[in-house]
Amino acid sequence: TLKGKVAVITGSTSGIGLATARVLAQNGADIMLHGLMSQQDGEALASELASEFGVKVCFDDADMRDPAATKALLERTVAKLGSVDILVNNAGIQHTETVDNFPEQKWHDIIAINLSAAFFTTQKALPVMKKKGWGRIVNIASVHGLVGSVKKSAYCAAKHGIVGLTKVTALENADQGITVNAICPGWVNTPILQAQVDDMAASKGIDKETAKRALVTTKQPLPEMMEPSQIGELILFLCSDAARSITGASLPIDGAWTAQ
Ligand code: NAD
User: Signal sequence span per UniProt (predicted)?
Assistant: First the structure.
């Protein structure tokens, strides 16, 4: 059980982050819910989770393109919930374009949100975790932290970066009761894929459900998208005592994508 633990999950208003918030809350953790959502909708979602699982849930809409806002998210988590025991760096965006045509601002945004934000949250969380002698940091990388794909230069650069950050943070804190791991999912059924599904549907003249399946099988031997809760369940395991020796790892959950 995670009773008495505080989990901050960035980008938890949607997709993998929201599914993870639900799994950790169900197991007793208090939750800092975070993402780009109106204060009103965020607070409604927070109170829905709080009453469903009987835990404390707060909401924060810090924009992770901004390092100061990102650090403040961690400060507010400690102020409102009393600690940070579990940090899940999950917020992320995607943009697909060839290197030579890639928009400069998109490059900066993807590096800021998908990579640098995790560095700033980690900097703020470590002193709190060290004081307690216990902590779990889980960075949501991607198969694109391990291999490349066309039109994903910024995303692959950020995700490979997250894998490196994970290793160093794990090494520096291996004797502190803190584990630091990256999870590397293949295709997960969430809104981040919508633009790619739409492009596939338009270019092949097929419906969106067929396009989703076509997209998955371009890369992933297991021919179905994962559900976001499957990532949440792996994070729950990494938070357990049984997983205390797993640190510095980058764990694929990718239907054999990177086995090729
Ligand atoms: P999603 O679009 O459903 O969720 C993204 C979350 O990030 C949302 O809560 C959103 O509000 C937040 N976010 C976006 N921009 C932000 C900003 N500027 N500041 C603060 N928060 C911001 O997508 P998802 O698929 O659940 O993605 C979660 C993570 O999983 C991402 O890091 C993504 O790269 C990774 N991932 C996804 C897949 C997949 O197939 N869906 C595969 C591998 C890795």
Answer: none
Atom of ligand 1 nearest to the CA of 112: 18
Q: 161-191: per-residue pLDDT in tens?
A: 999 999 999 999 999 999 999 999 999 999 9
ipTM of the complex model:
0.99
How many residues belong to the chain? 260
| Residue 207 CB neighbour total at 10 angstroms | 9
Task: From the candidates 155, 183, 211, 257, give the one annotated as an active-site residue.
Answer: 155
Distance of CA 155 to the CA centre of its chain: 13
Task: Tell me how far apart the alpha carbons of residues 163 and 243 are, in angstroms, rounded to a whole number.
Answer: 19
How far apart (Å, rounded) are the C-alpha atoms in residues 126 and 137? 9
| Known catalytic membership, residue 155 | yes
Q: Can you list the residues of the chain whose pLDDT is less than 70?
A: none
Whole-structure pTM value? 0.98
* Residues with C-beta less than 6 Å from any ligand 1 atom: 11-17, 35-36, 63-65, 90-93, 113-114, 140, 142, 185, 187-188, 190-193
